[in-house]
Amino acid sequence: MPDIERLLVAFDATPLAEKALEHALTTYPETEITVLHVIDYVEERYGAESLVGTEELRERAHNRSSKLLDNATDMAAEHDRTVSTAIRVGDPAREIIRYAEERDVDTIVIGSHGRSFVVRMLLGSVAEAVVRRAPTPVLVVR
Amino acid sequence: MPDIERLLVAFDATPLAEKALEHALTTYPETEITVLHVIDYVEERYGAESLVGTEELRERAHNRSSKLLDNATDMAAEHDRTVSTAIRVGDPAREIIRYAEERDVDTIVIGSHGRSFVVRMLLGSVAEAVVRRAPTPVLVVR
């Protein structure tokens, strides 16, 4: 049994995030898993094409985030697992790292490519930033 | 027990490589571990200050590599473990990835900062290149 008590899976709306969670569920069958989604308003705004009001944008983002984490919970249930979920708002890499520090996480699991190519080029790769700055080992799944 | 049968630990003469191996030994107590050191003649030449002949340089590099892997074997023995070891020659990231592909490795474990700062700036970060191009999940240890 691995000497890992608490995994944090960084989760966004990409196939690789699902793969990262799937990997965590199958590879660490006895480890406590928290699935974290970070709402990034900067990225939200690109998608909104500046036509929607801020309040509505936030509500939409939080609804989307909840649905995303429901998917994660469903994926876990398919493996007869339960996972904790969490939502944070801010810069994804910074929030993932902050969460890992606060919750005494052993390892962060993250997909190698989160965001779409264009947004990554604009904002930088979340996975890369997490690998550079995380206080824990980081398992990068592709 | 984790669903991982074969770990590859990328190992060079840095404290973080030892930490990566230590992490693999303690976190995956029942997984087969191979410790790979890649001799990088380009880097060797920087260290040699161009005063030593090529043949002697190669012999020295291979001796150093063997000693390094003896250290890895000793570290494993302290955990009542045995590890396989392997030496390859070439570009570290490329050889690590090639080895992982050939040997059907499940996960590559690597320290976040292998080489010295100056050499990394000249040649690029091995860990980063492995994370970008590996066929497997990569566990980056810091």
Automatic annotation (TrEMBL), chains A, B:
InterPro entries: Rossmann-like_a/b/a_fold, Universal_stress_UspA, UspA
SUPFAM superfamilies: Adenine nucleotide alpha hydrolases-like
Gene3D superfamilies: HUPs
Residues annotated as signal peptide: none
Keywords attached to this entry: Plasmid
Pfam families referenced in this protein's UniProt entry, alphabetically: Usp
Coiled coil: none
UspA domain residues: 5-142
Domain of life: Archaea
KW Electron transport (keyword) present: no
Family: Belongs to the universal stress protein A family.
Protein name: Universal stress protein
